[in-house]
Design a protein that fits this description.
By secondary structure, this protein is mainly alpha-helical. Helix content is about 60%, strand content about 5%. The chain is built from 19 helices and five strands. The strands form two sheets. A three-stranded antiparallel sheet has the order 2-1-3, with no helix packed on it. The N terminus and C terminus are likely disordered. This is Rap guanine nucleotide exchange factor like 1.
């Protein structure tokens, strides 16, 4: 029928005009409803799919460069999408060995990069045309066994430096970061940078413990290092630094470390028994009952095992509805507030004693993880 025939301009104008029309509508929609899209992830799913399809074809339509650049800037700010292969212009930031899909375009107006480094990785800034030339650094390809700082340092110094360093990280976390991390997840990433840095640090210490042991050559030397690491864990517990304590114990429980049968057999009986107690303390059975009982007897200042706080908050958030019959579930909010208040209590007194004994600088704490096995 005549009424259903497309206008002549659509038949004649190939895809360029249609692309420009779609871009205009999408740009207007993103600018108008960016607040809604940032708050409700489901609302932006279709828009994000359309955005990705457009960005995939950018190389075919150079005439639309200005519109596509504006769309890319809005897409990163509103939808939180990474820079893709078709991302226009600008320097790119990437980790060594990271797939192309995880690169990010740094816009001229941006002054910093909202990302964290993974274990044994680096950040590189480069132009888009030089991205393919990036290769892993020599020290990232192969780690060479050898003596590192841990072999020369005293257990007390290592433990006190870890406590001082982790206290500085823990002290910088705003209480609301715990709520944002649980309620908003990836969308709250920019608001939880300090919290994510501490979580990453916990993983780094676990990795560091296992790596140091596995790179140590010689049975006697490895057994001595294992004994030293157990001592460090004991001093961290005495310092009430439960984050470092947990990280070291988890690192020693790594499957690769557990298989060092001869090393464990050479460990003195006193330290074997001590490590069994540590395993019991970190046992997750009955919702970490043993750890919670020990933590309840501690007085501030102390550094808790932060991942468990996030687990509790996640359980409170997902286990009950925020709205009941159209009304706010005040009881749920009270429970979450009470859990967050415990963080304030842990930090209610300054960590002066261990800072004085261990050197008290975050830089020194980080340096102890140095050498060829630095995370």
């Amino acid at each position: 029928m005549e009424g259903t025939c497309p206008p002549a301009r659509w038949e004649e104008g190939s895809g360029l005009r249609r692309k420009r029309a779609v871009l205009a509508v999408l740009l207007h929609f993103l600018e108008t409803y960016k607040g809604l899209l940032q708050e409700e992830e489901s609302a932006g799913k279709v828009i994000k799919e359309l955005y990705l399809l457009i960005m995939k074809d950018t190389s075919l339509y150079h005439e639309l460069e200005d519109e596509i650049l504006k769309l890319h800037q809005l897409g990163q700010g509103v939808l939180g999408v990474p820079g893709g292969q078709g991302s226009p212009g600008g320097p790119e930031v990437t980790g060594s060995g990271v797939p192309r899909e995880e690169k990010a375009v740094l816009q001229p107006s941006e002054e910093c990069v909202f990302t964290t480094l993974g274990i044994n990785s680096h950040l590189f800034a480069c132009t888009r045309d030089t991205f393919d030339s990036l290769v892993p650094l020599p020290e990232e390809i192969q780690v060479v066994p050898g003596d590192t700082e841990i072999h020369r340092a005293e257990p007390e110094d290592v433990a006190n430096h870890l406590t001082a360093f982790h206290w500085e990280l823990f002290r910088c976390i705003h209480e609301l970061e715990f709520v944002d991390y649980v309620f908003h997840g990836e969308r709250g990433r920019r608001e939880t940078a300090n919290l994510e840095l501490l979580l990453q640090r916990c993983s780094e210490v676990q990795h560091w413990v296992g790596t140091e042991l596995l790179l140590c050559e010689g049975l006697g030397k490895r057994a001595h290092l294992l004994k030293k690491l157990i001592k460090i864990a004991a001093i961290c517990k005495q310092n009430q630094d439960m984050l470092s304590f947990y990280a070291i114990v988890i690192g020693l429980n790594n499957a690769a470390v557990s298989r060092l049968r001869l090393t464990w057999e050479k460990l003195p009986g006193k330290f074997k028994n001590l490590f069994r107690k540590f395993e019991n303390l970190t046992d997750p059975c009955r919702n970490h009952k043993t750890y919670r009982e020990v933590l309840a007897k501690m007085k501030p200042p102390l550094i808790p095992f932060v991942p468990l706080i996030l687990k509790d908050l996640t359980f409170l958030h997902e286990g009950s509805k925020t709205l009941l019959d159209g009304l706010v579930n005040v009881e749920k909010l009270h429970c979450i507030a009470e859990k967050v208040r415990t963080v304030r209590k842990y930090r209610s007194r300054p960590l002066c004693e261990w800072g004085a004994r261990g050197g008290g600088t975050a830089g020194a704490g980080g340096a102890l993880l140095g050498g060829p096995t630095q995370p």
